[in-house]
Amino acid sequence: MSNPLLHPDLPQLARKLIADGPHKKEKAPPRVRCIFGGDWLCDTTSASHVWEHPYFPQIYIPTSAIKSDLMTKETPVDEEKSAFTARLKNSKKETDRVIVFEKGQLAGLTRLEFSAMDGWYEEDQPIYGHFKDPYKRVDIYPSTRRITIKVDDVVVADSTFNMFLFETMLRPRYYMPKTAIQWQYTTPSDTTSLCPYKGTAEYYNLNVNGKEIKDAIWWYRLTTHESAPIAGMACFYNERVEVYVDGVKEEN
After folding, report:
1. How far apart, in whole angstroms, are the C-alpha atoms of residue 238 and residue 165?
2. Using CA atoms, how far apart are residues 183 and 175, in angstroms rounded to an integer?
């Protein structure tokens, strides 16, 4: 599946949104700010959640809230001049990953590519990876149910002190103390990933009986405040290993 975080052809995306409208659009209640090249580019309480796809929203900023001396409109995306590509530029940085909408459901809003900014904030909370979905929740419960992880019948972890993480529309994840893992089967990975609900994850590979499973384990050295119970604990990628919950094998 293509990465929903990136759209290689922004004019095409703009034309689709003009013609068909977004999946959904709602006012985003928090104060939203972003930094670009060391400048505060915007500061608004009138941003909008815009679902370009079903997975999670982007934040669109009122064009009037963006520092006008840093943004230049460039090429219209259609004959009706419903939207324009635009360029941001200051003394440190430049990007053309910007669309300014002037007609249709998104008139008066600007799409700033998330990854082209130095940082995003909702109120004073940094946003990691992508914007949060207001309809998604993460619940974390302590559990003494036994979690056993196997690879080719080799036990690589076993724990009865766990945190079960339930995230809307995703399978449960089982976090356990790192002391529950047989570390002789692991090697560090250079992979990291960002999650707006949890923070920055670091990874380990598994090596069992000559079989390597890349990035099979992840953990958060530090988490966002809402996911604090899993800080320092490790989780196995359910889909890549055998997971037993109280002795019952979980379906992959």
Report:
1. 13
2. 16
